[in-house]
């Protein structure tokens, strides 16, 4: 029963998390563009870390979306 409540709670966070990977991907693209066009020295570790955060956030968003779908509270109108 507690697991069901936890998955329901996490599933309701899906709309919040679904936009997080988009922000990290845009941040990564902007950092790479600025470092290339304006010849600004931005560490490749920072750019790689922002890509990795986008990857993690997309996985969490997909997992929480699955939790939301499994609860049956998702309305498909």
Shape annotation: elongated
Q: What is the SS-derived class?
A: mainly alpha
Query: What is the string of SSEs from the N terminus onward?
Result: HHHH
First-residue to last-residue Cα separation: 28 Å
Residue windows where pLDDT falls under 50 for at least 5 positions: none
Rg (CA only): 17 Å
- Tell me roughly what share of residues is in helical segments: over 70%
| SS element count, helices | 4
| Main beta-sheet strand count, sense and barrel state | none
Number of strands: 0
Strand content: under 5%
Overall mean pLDDT: 83
Describe the overall structure.
- The chain has helices spanning 2-12, 14-17, 20-37, 44-71.
- The longest helix has 28 residues, at 44-71.
- The model has no long low-confidence stretch (mean pLDDT 83).
- The chain is mostly helical.
- The chain is elongated and about 50 Å long.
- 6% of the residues are buried.
